[in-house]
Prior knowledge:
Layout: H1 4-12, H2 28-45, H3 54-60, H4 66-83, H5 116-119, H6 122-132, H7 135-138, H8 143-156
Helix pairs in contact: 2-3, 4-6, 4-8
Amino acid sequence: MYGSQEAETYSKCGLTKEVKAKAPYTARDPQQLEGVQRRGAHFVHKDYQHTTSVSQLMSDLNWLLLSSHQQISCLVIFYNGLRGNCPTSLDHLRHPTRPTRSVDVLTFIHLPAHVDCYKYSFFPTTVIDLNTLPSTTRSLSSVNSFRNSLHRMVFTGHLSC
Length: 161
């Protein structure tokens, strides 16, 4: 599926199998995939009743929505780019010029986008997601602690997709 150079890049960035090569810019594709995931939760539990809460089934299995996996993976790639562990270039991103209470050194200026295929691509969406994270999470020293913090935030409802 991936070439050896791509696989090496993914492993350097600390990514797992849920990485998606290209972010969809329409809501239809992820909803269809998450529908398959929800039906899979019914299958794993062998519970096909319409009255069963699929969210509860997925919670029992500790499954994240595919959109959450994608969001976490993108944030991990960006985090690795910040730390210099990944060949993702962040040179074109700018920081705010004046520090304020809500702005620190790991805050980036939002990239303006007028076309959907760019607006929902990696950098614009990930900059928004990173800027909404608490500064304590953004300043964690290791990739694993950053990823674990993101997973905790998703399970507790503090990180939304």
